[in-house]
Specification:
mainly alpha, single chain, 4 helices, 0% strand
């Protein structure tokens, strides 16, 4: 019982320290760090997104660009829109962790 209360006290102290402790560095340092992280994640997300679209183009037996651009095929447009939304949701979930 005593060990349990010691563990709870240590956990409470740690939680209070984490909640009260200030951010690392100055405000500008934290801002720059977050801007760099956002830029890196955005670039990686866009690269993965473009790769998935190219992969979808290669896997289909027809040209998606030709079907949408020249034939005005609405069904292919809806399928590509679903692929775009699905990949975007997956990338966003991966970035958010």
């Amino acid at each position: 019982m005593k060990l349990l209360s010691q563990i709870q006290d240590a956990a409470t102290e740690t939680a209070q320290h984490v909640l009260v402790s200030p951010a690392r560095g100055t405000t500008i340092d934290v801002l720059i760090e977050h801007l760099i992280a956002a830029t890196v994640f955005s670039v990686v997300g866009i690269i993965v997104f473009v790769f998935c679209l190219i992969l979808a183009e290669k896997l289909t037996p027809f040209s998606i660009i030709h079907e949408i651009g020249e034939e005005h095929n609405m069904a292919v447009s809806i399928v590509v829109a679903a692929i775009v939304l699905g990949v975007s949701i997956i990338i966003a979930a991966a970035i958010l962790g």
